[in-house]
Amino acid sequence: VQLQASGGGLVQAGGYLRLSCVASGSIYSIGGMGWYRQAPGKQRELVAFTSVGGNTNYADAVKGRFTISLVNAKKTVYLQMNSLKPEDTAVYYCNAQLNLLNSWGQGTQVTVSS
Fold first, then answer.
1. By the 8 A CB rule, do 49 and 57 touch?
2. Phi first, then psi: what are they for 62, rounded to 5°?
3. How far apart are CA 69 and CA 87, in angstroms?
4. Residue 86, exposed/middle/buried by CB under 10 A (0-12, 13-18, 19+)?
5. What is the pLDDT of residues 4-31, one digit of tens each?
6. Which of 37, 39, 77, 107 could bond 33 through an S-S bridge, CB–CB 3.0 to 4.6 Å?
7. What is the spatial distance between Cα 21 and Cα 36, in angstroms, rounded to a whole number?
8. What is the strand order of the sheet 9-12 is part of?
9. Closest Cα to residue 62, out of 113, 16, 3, 97?
Protein backbone atom coordinates (compact mmCIF):
# COMPACT_ATOMS: atom_id res chain seq x y z
CA VAL A 1 0.00 0.00 0.00
CA GLN A 2 1.38 3.36 -0.99
CA LEU A 3 0.27 6.99 -0.87
CA GLN A 4 1.63 9.33 -3.51
CA ALA A 5 1.14 13.05 -2.91
CA SER A 6 1.64 15.82 -5.43
CA GLY A 7 0.74 19.42 -6.11
CA GLY A 8 2.92 21.37 -3.73
CA GLY A 9 4.94 24.37 -4.79
CA LEU A 10 5.72 28.04 -4.32
CA VAL A 11 2.90 30.54 -4.47
CA GLN A 12 2.35 34.14 -3.43
CA ALA A 13 0.07 35.05 -0.57
CA GLY A 14 -3.51 35.09 -1.72
CA GLY A 15 -2.85 32.43 -4.31
CA TYR A 16 -4.04 28.86 -4.53
CA LEU A 17 -2.78 25.31 -4.91
CA ARG A 18 -4.41 21.92 -5.17
CA LEU A 19 -2.83 18.91 -3.56
CA SER A 20 -3.59 15.37 -4.68
CA CYS A 21 -2.89 12.05 -3.01
CA VAL A 22 -3.44 8.69 -4.67
CA ALA A 23 -3.54 5.41 -2.81
CA SER A 24 -2.25 2.36 -4.63
CA GLY A 25 -1.58 -1.28 -3.93
CA SER A 26 -3.80 -3.99 -2.54
CA ILE A 27 -6.54 -1.92 -0.94
CA TYR A 28 -9.82 -3.47 0.12
CA SER A 29 -10.94 -0.86 2.59
CA ILE A 30 -10.72 2.92 2.82
CA GLY A 31 -11.95 4.47 6.03
CA GLY A 32 -10.93 8.00 5.20
CA MET A 33 -8.19 10.18 3.76
CA GLY A 34 -6.79 13.55 4.61
CA TRP A 35 -3.90 15.91 5.10
CA TYR A 36 -1.59 16.94 7.89
CA ARG A 37 1.16 19.53 7.78
CA GLN A 38 4.37 20.25 9.62
CA ALA A 39 6.07 23.62 9.64
CA PRO A 40 9.72 23.98 10.67
CA GLY A 41 10.10 23.69 14.41
CA LYS A 42 6.47 22.73 14.92
CA GLN A 43 4.58 19.54 15.48
CA ARG A 44 2.63 17.86 12.73
CA GLU A 45 -0.97 19.03 12.78
CA LEU A 46 -4.22 18.07 11.17
CA VAL A 47 -5.27 20.19 8.21
CA ALA A 48 -8.33 18.35 6.97
CA PHE A 49 -9.68 14.83 6.98
CA THR A 50 -12.72 13.22 5.43
CA SER A 51 -14.28 9.84 5.97
CA VAL A 52 -15.67 7.79 3.13
CA GLY A 53 -19.07 8.56 4.56
CA GLY A 54 -18.49 12.27 4.02
CA ASN A 55 -17.75 13.45 7.52
CA THR A 56 -15.09 16.13 7.29
CA ASN A 57 -12.93 17.83 9.86
CA TYR A 58 -10.91 21.00 9.28
CA ALA A 59 -8.37 22.82 11.37
CA ASP A 60 -9.74 26.17 12.49
CA ALA A 61 -6.88 27.94 10.72
CA VAL A 62 -8.00 26.70 7.29
CA LYS A 63 -11.79 26.71 7.58
CA GLY A 64 -13.35 28.69 4.78
CA ARG A 65 -10.16 28.61 2.70
CA PHE A 66 -9.39 24.93 2.18
CA THR A 67 -11.69 22.25 0.81
CA ILE A 68 -11.08 18.53 1.00
CA SER A 69 -12.68 16.03 -1.34
CA LEU A 70 -12.38 12.28 -1.69
CA VAL A 71 -13.06 10.33 -4.86
CA ASN A 72 -13.34 6.84 -3.50
CA ALA A 73 -13.41 5.15 -6.90
CA LYS A 74 -10.06 6.74 -7.75
CA LYS A 75 -8.67 6.24 -4.23
CA THR A 76 -7.69 9.89 -4.40
CA VAL A 77 -8.06 12.75 -1.99
CA TYR A 78 -7.72 16.38 -2.99
CA LEU A 79 -7.06 19.49 -0.97
CA GLN A 80 -8.01 22.74 -2.65
CA MET A 81 -6.18 25.53 -0.88
CA ASN A 82 -7.34 29.08 -1.58
CA SER A 83 -6.36 32.44 -0.11
CA LEU A 84 -3.04 31.01 0.98
CA LYS A 85 -1.13 32.74 3.73
CA PRO A 86 2.58 32.64 4.63
CA GLU A 87 1.64 30.74 7.78
CA ASP A 88 0.36 27.91 5.57
CA THR A 89 3.97 27.21 4.61
CA ALA A 90 4.77 23.64 5.63
CA VAL A 91 5.36 20.13 4.40
CA TYR A 92 1.95 18.61 3.75
CA TYR A 93 1.51 14.88 4.37
CA CYS A 94 -1.22 12.66 3.04
CA ASN A 95 -2.78 10.34 5.59
CA ALA A 96 -5.24 7.52 5.05
CA GLN A 97 -7.00 4.74 6.85
CA LEU A 98 -6.39 1.86 4.47
CA ASN A 99 -7.20 -1.75 5.22
CA LEU A 100 -7.91 -0.71 8.82
CA LEU A 101 -4.38 0.63 9.16
CA ASN A 102 -3.09 4.19 9.37
CA SER A 103 -0.83 5.03 6.42
CA TRP A 104 1.31 8.05 5.56
CA GLY A 105 2.57 9.34 2.26
CA GLN A 106 5.69 11.32 1.58
CA GLY A 107 5.41 15.02 2.16
CA THR A 108 4.96 17.71 -0.42
CA GLN A 109 6.33 21.18 0.25
CA VAL A 110 4.00 24.17 0.16
CA THR A 111 5.68 27.56 0.39
CA VAL A 112 3.67 30.78 0.49
CA SER A 113 5.62 33.99 0.01
CA SER A 114 4.46 37.30 1.43
1. yes
2. -115, -5
3. 22
4. exposed
5. 999 999 999 999 999 999 999 999 999 9
6. 77
7. 12
8. 9-12, 101-113, 90-98, 30-38, 45-51, 56-58
9. 16
